[in-house]
Amino acid sequence: MEQPAGGRRPRLVSSLAVGQRAWEVTLERGLLSWRDPQPPRGRHGVYYVKRAQKHCWQCSEVTFWCVDEQLCNQWIQALKELLELQKSRPKQLLVYINPYGGKQQGKRIYEQKVAPLFSLASISTDVVITEHANHAKDNLFEVNIYKYDGIVCVGGDGMFSEVMHGLIGRIQKDSGIDQNNPKAPLVQCNIRIGIIPAGSTDCVCYATVGVTDPVTSALHIIVGDSQPLDVSSIHHNNTFLKYSVSLLGYGFYGDILKDSEKKRWMGTIRYDFSGFKTFLSHHYYEGTVSFLPAKHTLGSPRDKKRCRTGCYICRQSKQQPEEQQKNYGLEHNEDEGGEDWKVIKGKFLAINAVNMSCACPRSPKGLSPAAHLADGSIDLILVRKCSRFNFLRYLVRHTNQDDQFDFTFVEVYRIKKFQFTSKHLEDSDSGVKDVGKKRFGQFCRDHPACCCNLSNSIWNCDGETLDSSAIEVRVHCQLMKLFARGIEENSNDEAIYNQSTVEQLL
Prior knowledge:
- The protein is built from twelve helices and 19 strands.
- By secondary structure, it is of the alpha+beta class.
- Strands 10, 11, 12, 13, 14, 15, 16, 17, 18 and 19 form a ten-stranded antiparallel beta sheet that branches. Strands 7-6-8-9 form a four-stranded parallel beta sheet, with helices on both faces. The chain has a three-stranded antiparallel beta sheet with strand order 1-2-3, with no helix packed on it.
- Strand 4 and strand 5 form a beta hairpin.
- The relative contact order is 0.15.
């Protein structure tokens, strides 16, 4: 309001909304007038993350107009300086693209949906198109990985596994750690891995983000999210075999993978076909499982406490071993005496060891709904021999809200490490020779629908086959980190914001 001289009525000027538009409204000497406001001289657009439905994120833009161009530039500079202070945001990434995985859409997904977002966020990238199996893994042993803020893999779980093995292997090699030693304390990988889902299965992405959407995953990378992840190492006779972060399954899930590998020409439907065929076969396997219970964790497999963003159980479970490490040395040797180990012998339809829930769109709860991403433990699920009908009841519960562990033939334990030896291998080591049994085993392999005991299955290790009848598995707490934040609570409904933190800006 302006105060004129001479006692005249004041002149009133304001920006008011008239209808659907903003006008500059003036009241002077009893005359009310309005006109278009003075055109702005400067503008700047701000890109930010907007939460959508079902854990999806979107990139949105808002444009600010300013009459003073100098003031506009000050705003732009202030926002740039604030973004520079966000040290967790990556500036340079190494990207591996699998052009053959899934529906062979990896390259297109990256170029059309991901690369423009990286460019918008001023992230520089070095892109490698993989040409053969283990290309990314081998390349990670050759390049200077330390100049990058993160590694991005575009593909499915197989592509992620390849990058993970390459990164962990490179870090251990540079640190002088012998991976063949099952008791060696592995060095944590601080270079984060980002997953752009573009494969047949994207279990790891789904369990750590809540959705398999390339744009959402790209935005988690841009804002610099960090989610620690447990990794299990698998050995046989002091020889390193593989790492696992999701499912290590023997019996049912191993047989499905073994059969589906012969039918890759069928595409993703091969998993349904092989699953149905394996269910009808109903094979069981005899063996011995020895495990060390996890006493340091706060939760249990049946407490229904889901692992979510900022999980309290994962934070506390990490702190306790660290305190033990300070007080008792590098290795807390509670397992050396052997008194805490549990031994179970039996006939099993499935032996599943999971580091995470293994949730997916078809099974929203996963194999172990209360499994945690970074609590330093494995959920060991033993499904003993039962009728085909009861096994079907167990499988169906993975798709509904009923407790899938509420069966007399299902046992679940939260553990730190375990060993498995098949009965066939035990008999071989004992020098047991039975020609008739050997011939019968061959007959069963030739006629898999006979519903009998086969000598050995294979392991399904994160979707990759692992053929070993005797293994030793140990979990390494928070060995690696992902560009993720875990599944967020209460993000099913669309949320529309008129404000955004600096961390959410692009």
